[in-house]
Amino acid sequence: MVVEERIYSIRSGAMLRYLDLVRNEGIAIQQRILGRLIGYFTTEIGTLSQVTHMWAYASLEDRTRRRSELAEDSQWQAFVPRLAQYIERAENRILVPTDFSPRPGFADHATTLEETQS
């Protein structure tokens, strides 16, 4: 299992518009293709005007396949320019859990991902 962490710095004054767009349109497209959303967060303390969302994948290959499928999706292609206008900077990290890291709910998700690949 791997976790993808995406951190977006949102343009000043645009956070509510960004979140509304994701809530009302974007998250449904992403979840349909990417699968397991761990969470979608905003910052309260520290660097402000940031959004962090995290996605779980069975493997790097699974992530690559799903991200490629998302990039080819016509709904996503129409959505991205509308979302991108609010993003000032983007960061991306792939996190690999240690052997002692808790993984609540991930075992079930990995099975589901493998089944969808068949």
Automatic annotation (TrEMBL):
<protein>
    <submittedName>
        <fullName>NIPSNAP family protein</fullName>
    </submittedName>
</protein>
<dbReference type="InterPro" id="IPR051557">
    <property type="entry name" value="NipSnap_domain"/>
</dbReference>
<dbReference type="InterPro" id="IPR011008">
    <property type="entry name" value="Dimeric_a/b-barrel"/>
</dbReference>
<feature type="domain" description="NIPSNAP">
    <location>
        <begin position="3"/>
        <end position="102"/>
    </location>
</feature>
<dbReference type="Pfam" id="PF07978">
    <property type="entry name" value="NIPSNAP"/>
</dbReference>
<comment type="similarity">
    <text>Belongs to the NipSnap family.</text>
</comment>
<dbReference type="InterPro" id="IPR012577">
    <property type="entry name" value="NIPSNAP"/>
</dbReference>
